[in-house]
Amino acid sequence: MTYTIRAMSHEDLAQVNNIDREAFPTQWPPPNYRQELQNKLAHYVVACDDSRTVEAAEVKPRKGLLGLLSRMIPLHKRSYYLDATRPEYTRQYIIGFSGIWVLVDEAHITNIALRQEYQGKGLGELLLIATIDLSMILKASLMTLEVRASNVIAQKLYGKYGFTQVGVRRGYYLDNREDAVIMSTESITAPSFQAQLKQLREALAIKLDSPQAIE
Question: Is 146 a catalytic residue?
């Protein structure tokens, strides 16, 4: 099975909004992704399952960030590739998405969301790697995020990729006033970070190529 990661487009918004509502049902107010696509600080990517399609009109591929994404480091030639020129890409079945805001040299992860049927297969980790790659393309030197204090699974994943807790935002989430844990990386261009990322990328490629991981 193969996956494509590319820049989010306006034609993706229906699928993206459905995934967001599924992943964050209590979040209020819901994000306005149409507005985000017009925000020069915001950069979003979607992950697509190449074995599935949705009904959508043909459109021409966009330039800009798509061209940048073509330079992102592939996780594995069969399990993950980036496509800047593929036609009819809005027919692709989107399984998840992620976004960052880039402020000077800091990339702040706004969200990572995955359809429930694709969770537990390493694809959230795939999106995280793609988000780190995107941050490097956009010349960020470090990354930050907020995660719910109760979301231990996500905190462990971020910790695996070099994020450490640097603070807490009290009552950050409006739905239940839950605290947010603030996490940050060291320099993502540092040799130690890059060496660890390379090892994790290779391990995930093996997992995604395993039939047990994707069936």
Answer: yes
